Each structure stands twice: as structure tokens, then as C-alpha cells.
Amino acid sequence: MAYDAELAARVRELIGEHAPAREQPMFGGLAFLVANRMAVVASNRGGLMVRIDPAESEQFLKTTGAQPMEMKGRTYRGWLHIDGEHVRTRRALKKWVAVGIDAAIARAAVAR
């Protein structure tokens, strides 16, 4: 399954409001990198992969639509999968894009 091009366009628009980003095909989806770190990915599973601060994982998992990110039987620390139903509105998508941007910028700062 290919990623949702409409969702990717919506993410592109929102990211452009906050930070310079580049796009790169990854994991069968389209990744949006901020500060050279993946922030969000329009997933080929539908919905969105979102980078988070791992310390905030439990808080985010209580959010409707947030699940641990798993691929090939492995759970990825610092990543959540948000079902497409839970990013239909601009407000909901904007929230998750902001979370991903903040986490990517924080991760880039630590790497320096």
C-alpha cells in the first residue's frame, strides 16, 4: 500500500508553516525531516508515524489514535503511529505535526 498523498500534502502545508523541511521516501511512506531528523512520516499503513520524546510516550499513548510504532515485530522507541481516522481534521493533524517537529528539533540539538 502506498502512502496517502492527500495526507502528505496536508502535512507538507503544516510543516511549511513551522520549520524548513525536506521530504524523503522512507519505509514505503514519505518522511518529512526537520533539522535533518525525521519528524513525521505519511505511512504506507495509512495514518502518520510521529517522532516523540520517549519520556512522554505514556502520556501520548493515552491519546485517542496513538499506538506504539511497530514494524516487522519491533517496537520503535520514540515513535507512535496515529491512525488516519485521528488526523482527519486540520486541528488534530496540526497537533501531531507540531509534536513531531518539536521532537526532531530536540533530537537534533542533543546530537550536536
UniProtKB/TrEMBL annotation:
The keyword Lipid biosynthesis appears for this protein: no
Domain of life from the UniProt record: Bacteria
GO molecular function, one term: methyltransferase activity
Residues forming coiled coils: none
Chain ranges of the TfoX N-terminal domain: 14-104
GO biological-process terms attached to the record: methylation
Pfam families, A to Z: TfoX_N
Alphabetized UniProt keyword annotations: Methyltransferase, Transferase
This protein's name: RNA methyltransferase
Phylogenetic lineage: Bacteria, Bacillati, Actinomycetota, Actinomycetes, Mycobacteriales
